[in-house]
Amino acid sequence: MKTIDLKVSGMSCGHCVSSIETGVGNMDGVDEVNVKLDEGRVTITFDSDQVNKGMLKLTIEDLGYDIQ
Predict the structure, then answer these.
(1) Closest Cα to residue 32, out of 65, 11, 8, 56?
(2) Of 6, 49, 55, 58, which sits most exposed with the smallest number of CB within 10 A?
């Protein structure tokens, strides 16, 4: 398992947290998603054999948020 910490902008409420946790959390290979709204950070633990950092970033961007 690998863990990445991403700086994400555009998150402003509980719906944003839920959207990212659900959207990323439902991906194959993702073990855990932790959104820190007040810090603008998303920490993801994942199996690098099933998903990569680029795929995770793309999913967050597709949900309407920007990776810093």
Answers:
(1) 56
(2) 49
